[in-house]
């Protein structure tokens, strides 16, 4: 007997129709029809998230094989599926501890003005930081300069 994965997640209706079916354990995502969504979601709500069972002939053979392979359907019990999740999480944590990982997030709003920057033409929607920084700044009544528009450096440092 087949069971809908305890980690099946349904999206809201998509713009072009249908729904996204995601599996929180495998990471698989498939677009399903509104009819199939109605059946799966309806059974999930009426029978409980961990107790949606299907007979072998319920799905077309091709769809059944695809959903089994991608994790939307399973032959495992809820408890066994939970154990698989625990084992996967444990393995990921152990692997992550073997070596540190760093994430570098590039931002086109950067104000460092590095000479080797590859995104100067994208910064602040201008042709480059040189144009932004060289734009004349209007003077305040007391003679101090106002910040140049579009330049984060001048916006963050008060005169």
Description:
- The protein is α+β, with helices and mostly antiparallel strands.
- Helices cover 35% and strands 12% of the residues.
- The chain contains 5 helices and 6 strands, in the order E-E-E-E-H-E-H-E-H-H-H.
- The protein has helices spanning 34-47, 61-70, 78-98, 129-134, 152-156; strands spanning 2-4, 8-10, 19-23, 29-32, 53-54, 73-74.
- The strands form 2 sheets. Strands 5-1-6 form a 3-stranded antiparallel β-sheet. It has a 3-stranded antiparallel β-sheet with strand order 2-3-4.
- The longest helix has 21 residues, at 78-98.
Summed up:
By secondary structure, the chain is an alpha+beta fold. It folds into 2 domains: 2-98, no CATH class; 103-159, no CATH class.
Whole-number mean pLDDT: 78
Low-confidence stretches: 127-134, 145-159
Number of strands: 6
Percent range for β-strand residues: 5-15%
> Strand order within the widest sheet?
5-1-6
Class from secondary-structure proportions: alpha+beta
Integer tally of domains: 2
- Shape annotation: extended
For the CA atoms, what is the radius of gyration? 27 Å
Number of helices: 5
What is the percent of helical residues?
25-40%
The N- to C-terminal Cα distance equals 72 Å
Provide the succession of SSEs.
EEEEHEHEHHH
Main sheet attributes: strand count, strand direction, barrel closure: 3 strands, antiparallel
């Amino acid at each position: 007997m087949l069971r809908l994965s305890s980690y099946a997640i349904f999206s809201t209706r998509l713009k072009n129709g249908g729904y996204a079916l995601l599996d929180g354990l495998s990471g698989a995502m498939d677009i399903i029809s509104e009819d199939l969504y109605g059946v799966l979601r309806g059974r999930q709500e009426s029978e409980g998230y961990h107790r949606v069972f299907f007979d072998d002939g319920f799905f077309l053979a091709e769809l059944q094989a695809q959903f089994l392979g991608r994790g939307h359907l399973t032959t495992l019990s809820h408890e066994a599926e939970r154990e698989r999740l625990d084992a996967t999480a444990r393995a990921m944590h152990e692997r992550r501890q073997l070596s540190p990982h760093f994430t570098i997030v590039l931002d086109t709003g950067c104000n460092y003005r590095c000479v080797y920057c590859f995104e100067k033409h994208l910064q602040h929607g201008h042709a480059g930081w040189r144009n932004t920084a060289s734009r004349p700044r209007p003077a305040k009544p007391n003679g101090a300069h106002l910040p140049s528009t579009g330049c984060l450096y001048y916006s963050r440092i008060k005169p």
